[in-house]
Amino acid sequence: MTKEKLFEAVKDLPETFELEDLFERLVLIKRIEEGLRQADNGETLTESEARAYLGRWLPGAGVAAA
Questions:
Q1: What is the spatial distance between Cα 6 and Cα 12, in angstroms, rounded to a whole number?
Q2: Residue 19 resides in a domain
Q3: How far apart are CA 66 and CA 58, in angstroms?
Q4: CA 42 remoteness from chain centre
Q5: What is the reported pTM?
Q6: Under the phi-then-psi rule, with left for phi > 0, alpha for psi from -120 to 50, and beta for the rest, what region is 16?
Q7: Domain of life of the organism in this record (predicted)?
Q8: What is the rounded CA–CA span in Å between residue 2 and residue 16?
Q9: pLDDT in tens, 13-45
Q10: Which comes out higher in pLDDT, residue 58 or 37?
Q11: Domain count for the chain
Q12: In the structure, what pLDDT confidence band is assigned to residue 64 with cuts at 50, 70 and 90?
């Protein structure tokens, strides 16, 4: 994360906020950046791979392999 992105995240918050709100926003930005990096590097799953992966974690939740 860059200082610019940090400053932008703070600028977008309301005048008064909880520190947890800032932390949540920074974690979200970090996760988005990591996902974009993974996509750029081809570290993604096909839909069927994702369904199989989620099916292990969410049995009975309607997520089945296609």
A1: 10
A2: yes
A3: 15
A4: 17
A5: 0.65
A6: beta
A7: Bacteria
A8: 23
A9: 999 999 999 999 999 999 999 999 999 999 999
A10: 37
A11: 1
A12: low
Tabulate helix, strand, coil % of the chain (nearest 5). 65, 0, 35
Residues across the chain? 66
pLDDT higher than 70, residue 61 = no
Domain range for residue 35?
Answer: 3-57
Query: How far is it, in rounded angstroms, from Cα 14 to Cα 42?
Result: 37
Assign 62 a pLDDT band (cuts: 50, 70, 90). low
> Could you identify the residue written with the tokens 């089945």?
64
User: Is 63 part of any domain?
Assistant: no
Q: CA-CA distances (angstroms) from residue 9 to 30, 39, 46? A: 11, 23, 32
